[in-house]
Amino acid sequence: MEIEILFLLFAAPAILFAGISKGGFGSGAAFAAAPFLATIIDPKIAIGLMLPLLMLMDLTGLYFYWKKWLKSLAIVLILGGIPGVGLGALFFSYANPYLLKVMIGFIAILFIIHRLTAKNTYLRFSNRLLSGNVGYFWAILSGFTSCISHAGGPPAAIYLLSKNISKTEYQATTIIVFWVINIFKLCPFLYFGFITLDTMKISLLLAPVAFFGTWLGYRMHYLLSEEKFYFIINLLLFMTGLKLIYDGCIGLFAF
Hints:
With 255 residues, the protein is mainly α. It has ten helices and no strands.
């Protein structure tokens, strides 16, 4: 495909937003860049060119948050996320991604409503923390949705937000988890032809924007208090849920 200046000007804000989300706010809203790009290019091309950029953001985030993650939580999300990627690749041609988007969107919104009604604060959840077994469920779902649409953030957020961890522990854990998951997504993306020489050229041109966005998100992360950070996470998760529902309904009812 031809690389037009208009496309790059359109794509740059989407990549910048994704970088800010990945660098400072838990990756949950970064998935929105691919649907945004899909409004002007083929959806398969959009998710293909986004993966190398997401991997660059992950690598940059690893430098910023090295060893600040919670190992126990990261292990649960990684061990569940890898087979989730496998399921996503296996059922890519059969599963209905639009119905899945609607389901995840509703779950994300209901989770936020539950959190806001459980206690009159944006910082804490109820004391009923999610068990390890339930954590693996969210991890598998995170890997699955990440593989088919880069939307692994909301399921991972639902598990991590229940643990009442610090904002930096939360952020660092998402970085290491999705760094591993995105590496495992490379094989199916190459197999299905989502990543090509053309998409790599576009990703390379947009790489500076991805790096800058991640750095900017990192800087913003430390400027915010714990309460404001989790307020933004909740807001992004809620908006992400609405976007997932909208995208899913458009796909389900398109003729």
